[in-house]
Amino acid sequence: MAGKTLYDKLWDDHLVKQREDGSALIYIDRQLLHEVTSPQAFEGLRLANRKPWRIDANLATPDHNVPTTDRAKGIEGIVDPVSRIQVETLGKNCDEFGILEFKIMDKRQGIVHVIGPEQGATLPGMTIVCGDSHTSTHGAFGCLAHGIGTSEVEHVLATQCLVQQKMKNMLVKVDGKLGKGVTAKDVVLAIIGKIGTAGGTGHAIEFGGEVLQNMSMEGRMTVCNMAIEAGARVGMVAVDGTTIDYVKGRPFSPTGENWDAAVKYWRTLHSDLDAVFDKVVELDGSEIKPQVSWGTSPEMVADVTGNVPDPAKEEDPIKREGIERALKYMGLQANQAITDIKLDRVFIGSCTNSRIEDLREAAVVVKGRKVADSLKQAMVVPGSGLVKAQAEEEGLDRIFLEAGLEWRDPGCSMCLAMNADKLGQGEHCASTSNRNFEGRQGFGGRTHLVSPAMAAAAAIAGHFVDVRELLN
Amino acid sequence: MRAFTQHQGLVAPMDRSNVDTDMIIPKQFLKSIKRTGFGPNLFDELRYLDEGKPDQDSSQRPLNPDFVLNQPRYKGASVLLARSNFGCGSSREHAPWALDDYGFRVIIAPSFADIFYNNCFKNGLLPIVLEEKVVDKLFDEAEVLEGYQLTVDLEAKTVITPSGESFSFDVDDFRRHCLLNGLDDIGVTLEDAELIKSYEDQRRKTAPWLFGASQ
């Protein structure tokens, strides 16, 4: 019998019941909650007169609607009354059901996918869900983690289980060594560019190979975060020393005997050598260049040294039409050099790229330089209050402020523009977020997905530049 | 949940692949704490020429005449014919809520994004995967024949065209069972409460660090 993949192991360890019809009940170790996708779930519990199954499995924080300025005012600082009600509702629900919430004034507040790992609330081997598709982030710890809808949030609250069908196994292997200035974000954008936004549909992706083995936890989180942009609900990386070192000593992490027992188990969380994957994709890391998305889907990416594609050269009529539509929306010309794309705003933040390492990466590039006068705005939004404090301790805030970038308070911010941070119509933004969909960052806004280093370089130049030139 | 057995309805063809959930329902409408009322903002940025805002009377807004749902012949459509990877992106269940609130009961496409596909079943909405060439054929027919309707039978797992042509589709048994009977799947899961408890007791012993660790 063939060995097991990491996904197989996590699945088997959480299987409560295999039903005859092919569906299965899977036990959920951790649910993360935020204000946007939970109110209807709590309301559902109340209407059915149900209670949460296991309160201590849940952790909540407001992130999507919170302002990134004026936070001393707390909830009163949320100008939009509809946003404010949503944040207040999360607070009321958590208080009513006794769920731990890092509220808006708590220094531990932040983006759910940043605070889980930061607190050790994300531990290897867990099943983790959240009403947010970027829950795949936590797979970086050898977790089975995925986004769910609000009905499922309610289901997990009420039963601590999810009804699932087992997915297929996919391995994305990136070997070789990354060049200077090439980051985890470039790796995942290159992967999505290669396999497409539906390339991982129906699959749990394990990211492996030399590049992933050498990557920090922050980098692995960036890669797993965007598994959903390749169509896969689940992205994972095997547990190794890097994982265990990261987890050690965090508030929710085990200690003493429990730590030893946990580490012993965590060490088994990798695919067996003879495991069989349904699909394998290989990339050579040494060939990956800094990436820039030019279109309205995360698969529409190019090397920074490349050009916007020419739809006339695309043979598939549906794809050709997609390219034409994207170029029209983005206001770009076929064959235009990527470095000729001028920018209006720069956004460094989001659950993809707002951790300390991302901020360090951007700070190195802007240090001693100035943001281009042509930009309307360049902002840095740390992923949590603790990331913010750490960055300030390291003096990164000074570097950003001296270069002319804004230093904000933590939240999802301009990644999806549910708060006040948004693009104006027709504006181009170099963004370290995860989605370049039409209107995502604001009505008529034009998003270009890049790494923190590339966003920082673009902030200095006012247009895209190859960050490798600035690092020399 | 509303049960789904059979449905016959007018077809609206949306000829665009990779329709994401941001497009189905833009973020400014996710601030609602209700499950209903999203219909007027379904496909907001494609459907209207101005920028949509929450709590606004959408009946007074300028419509985009080129958008399929604004064409009089598709008024009252309840079957959405779509292209591949429909519903990609965010996990927001507001997307199926908006489709449902607008009046759609069935979505037919060559492929769907996983989370969206799953969310539909929780809301009495049936996503049907048909082969690309079959979907192409349905697009051709729906665009040519005004008033084109399809009949969907979940019991028999078939889609039937006005000319009587029948296409079968796959749907997993559990989801089909829940949808046919309008079952609340939390209730179904809680029938196994004892099993969940015994799993949990076992796990408490083998992985005690996962319990009660909050600080």
TrEMBL record, chain A:
It is an enzyme of class 4 (lyase). Keywords: 4Fe-4S, Amino-acid biosynthesis, Branched-chain amino acid biosynthesis, Iron, Iron-sulfur, Leucine biosynthesis, Lyase, Metal-binding. Binds 1 [4Fe-4S] cluster per subunit. SUPFAM superfamilies: Aconitase iron-sulfur domain. Its cofactor is [4Fe-4S] cluster. Pathway: Amino-acid biosynthesis; L-leucine biosynthesis; L-leucine from 3-methyl-2-oxobutanoate: step 2/4. It catalyses: (2R,3S)-3-isopropylmalate = (2S)-2-isopropylmalate. [4Fe-4S] cluster binds at residues 351, 412, 415. Residues 8-462 form the Aconitase/3-isopropylmalate dehydratase large subunit alpha/beta/alpha domain. The keyword Iron applies. GO terms for molecular function: 3-isopropylmalate dehydratase activity. Transmembrane segments: none annotated. The keyword Cell membrane does not apply. CDD domains: IPMI. NCBIfam families: leuC (TIGR00170), PRK05478.1 (NF004016), PRK12466.1 (NF009116). Catalyzes the isomerization between 2-isopropylmalate and 3-isopropylmalate, via the formation of 2-isopropylmaleate. Belongs to the aconitase/IPM isomerase family. LeuC type 1 subfamily. This is 3-isopropylmalate dehydratase large subunit. It comes from Marinobacter xiaoshiensis. The lineage of its organism: Bacteria, Pseudomonadati, Pseudomonadota, Gammaproteobacteria, Pseudomonadales. The gene is leuC.
